[in-house]
Amino acid sequence: MTDLCHSNFLISINQALENISTALAVLHGDEILSLHIAQARVLSEQCVAPSDLPAFANSSMDGYAFNSADIQTTDFELIQTGISWAGRPFFSKLERGQCVRIFTGAVLPLGADSVIMQELVEVNEIRIHFPANTQAQKNIRVKGEDVKQYDCLLPAAKQLTAVDLGLLASAGIYEVRVKRKIRIAFFSTGDELRPVGSVLTEGQIYDSNRYTLAALLDNPCHEVNDLGVITDDKAQIRQSLLLAAQSNDVIITSGGASVGDADYIKEILDEIGQVDFWKIAIKPGKPLAFGHIQGCYFFGLPGNPISVIATYQQIVTPALRQLSGLSSTTPIRFKAICTSPLYKSPGRMEFQRGILSQIVPGEFTVCSAGKQGSNILSAGSRANCYILLGREEGNVAAGEQVLVEPFNLFL
Ligand code: AMP
Ligand code: MG
User: Fold this and answer.
1) 335, 402 in Cβ contact below 8 A?
2) Separation of alpha carbons 323 and 407, rounded Å
3) β-strand partners of 406
């Protein structure tokens, strides 16, 4: 166990992320789900195309199917011999001099290799007049042009999007094998905490972190167990942790991670698990505990509400994504012009809460969302991004470029 909490040594966030990433193993176990409940789940194996997509050559337009050998240098006429509807093909073979009325998605008849848009022809009963510049092999969707039979339709570890579900369904696949959900228990610690709805006495506060964490954890890949508030009682915290470790993959706590007199988490974890306590050079969110209790991963987050959110988003989220088997754990970051001054002392990397605006498509400005204290939820609520300020950076003047990270976008 590394006890860096008593020392003034600060580790970088990248070091903390690397330590955690090295310690995590992808969770074992998967389940088979029907497509309609598979959105945002992670494939545990690749999906192979059972057939070509599209499965047959068809028209991409409403028009007339014909053989390009009939095209002439001047305008010309072909005789319509039938109709190919979507779902009701024209089964005869097209002979020279003939054409077939065809609709979008309808099978291209045998003998045809081209479709002309209906707007470009003149129709005189069954005599169809084609213009001089009629082009060959247009408006056709070739068999297998999207995906070839036995090609990889979707790779393993892909998080299923709406498009993926459409792709699978178009290939006739109605079930997928996905990673099982991560079982995550969380609780708040602190004698001062009362549930929303109760009457507070002097010095008590409402337990807001549990609402925040529940919302942050709400994800199709998670099965979440809210264990409530545990008072700063060593025996109770110990019992809750041991019990939760039996049936969860991850435990997340908020509060009690620093070394105040009532901060039992560290003491308890020394007894029942293997946990490192770090002071991370980030603001908000300096103290963090990470380790395991009997094979269950443990994240001890700080108590201050904005610290909980920042450490969850910056440290726990990539870890949970890794556990889910997702390779994409890097948040999207880009530069924007900062329109307000920012105040910062060198020493810790800061994740200031900012308001990002798009001035014209592709051009962004950002300003501070307000007071930056780790207890200031109102500024966090106004924010839609983090402004990242490097560890050794100082104040930022209005007009300078800064790095921003919109909430919840990953590459
Ligand atoms: P701690 O890390 O336990 O020392 O808590 C740091 C600060 O966060 C204190 O002001 C706590 O009252 C506050 N805090 C801890 N847990 C919560 C919670 N669940 N909801 C709101 N504030 C909290
Ligand atoms: Mg506390």
Assistant:
1) yes
2) 20
3) 385
End-to-end CA distance of the chain: 33
**Which element (helix H / strand E) includes 371?**
none
| 159/396 Cα distance (integer angstroms) | 38
Q: Which residues of the chain have pLDDT under 70?
A: 1-8, 261, 409-411
The DSSP secondary structure of 16-33, one letter per residue, reads: HHHHHHHH--PPP-EEEE
Q: How many angstroms is it from 189 CA to the middle of ligand 1? A: 8
- Chosen CATH of 13-29+180-323 out of 3.40.980.10, 3.20.20.70, 3.90.650.10, 2.40.10.120: 3.40.980.10
Q: Per-residue pLDDT tens for 299-318? A: 999 999 999 999 999 999 99
User: Measured in angstroms, how far is the CA atom of residue 380 from the centroid of ligand 1?
Assistant: 16
List the domain boundaries for the chain.
13-29+180-323, 31-51+145-179, 58-141, 334-406
Q: HSE on the CB side for 325, CA within 13 Å? A: 23
| CATH code of the domain occupying 58-141 | 2.170.190.11
Cβ–ligand 1 contact at 212 (below 6 Å): no
Ligand 1: which of 186, 209, 212, 226 to mutate, most ligand atoms within 8 Å of CB?
Answer: 209
Query: Tokens for 241?
Result: 């942790």
Helix spans in 294-350 (H): 305-311, 317-323
| Crossing angle of the two packed helices 234-247 and 264-272, in degrees rounded to 10 | 50
Tokens representing residue 171 in the block: 């290939």
Q: Cα(13) to centroid of ligand 2, in Å?
A: 23
CATH of region 31-51+145-179, choose from 3.90.105.10, 3.40.50.10540, 3.40.640.10, 1.10.645.10: 3.90.105.10
Task: Please give the structure tokens belonging to residue 195.
Answer: 């549930």
Predicted pLDDT of residue 7: 55
Q: Please tell me if the CB atom of residue 305 comes closer than 6 angstroms to any atom of ligand 1.
A: yes
What residues flank ion ligand 2 with Cβ within 5 A? 190, 255-256, 303
Which atom of ligand 1 is nearest the CA belonging to 208? 20
CA of 358: how far to CAs of 334, 366, 367, 370, in Å? 13, 9, 12, 19
Is residue 369 within 8 Å of residue 379, measured between CB atoms? yes
Omega cis (within 30) before 318: no
Measure 406 CA to ligand 2 centroid, in angstroms: 30
pTM of the predicted protein model? 0.91
